[in-house]
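Sequence in, structure out. Go.
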Amino acid sequence: MTPPTVKDVLAFHKIDRAVYEKFVAHGSEPSTARNAVSLFMWLEERIDIIYQIVQIINPTLIVTLIAEAESVLQCLRQGDGQSSYTEIPMITSLAKNRLDIRYFNYNKDETVRGLAHILDRIGRLLFDDHMYELLRAYESEEAAVRAGLSAVRPVVPPALAMLYAPGMGVSITSTEDARSMVITFSKGFPIGREEIWEHFTRRWGDCIEKVMMERAPPGGIPPMYGRVVFKTDAYINLLLDGERVVMYNFNGRCLWARKYVPTPIVSVN
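Output:
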């Protein structure tokens, strides 16, 4: 069996891409839309839901659906069963009453692993705007040939003609910096390395590569910040969901998390 090309894969996932673009067009941040679509793609393996979503044209219903998806993701993020929605009526309706918010609480580990898998593999193509621009341009030229408006048969762009390999593009974001999240604590309320590791792995499975803490300064002052390196940047996308800073509660102590941004090196002549 001939392996699919990037063009084949992008064409196969057109409906998923259409849902993503629908969410963005209705005010969702791209990162939030990516996570929501990944959630529905994961559900699609269990129930027929994506095709129903792409047919929704009522803006209010689309915004409601995005909010319900975000509520599910927030439940997974906090790991405490808390959600801004006690119910997710629209998702439940689309699923023909086969699931509700409790479904995601009971299947938290499986859901999280599935979302990370989608974001880390097919998601790297599916949410790539440039790739879909190339595909649409090529298909437009093909349509012109079929309609007799052009005699020049288009050549498939090299980026689309490549054989597809799961996780294409992962090398671009596989550096430690790209997989890192900076964490800071309230003064006088430090959180230990083991506790941080246990907190995230309990909620997100085997997701951490290492946790680094500030070297404790003299005088017994506890560290004020650290850095968590995840096994893939997909976890950071899910944890931060487009927010610049997210706060997590550790038994009454606060941990603030943000994506690590390396400080540029300025050369001095």
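Check: The chain has two domains: 6-126, 174-259. Strands lie at 180-185, 208-213, 225-230, 246-250, 253-259.
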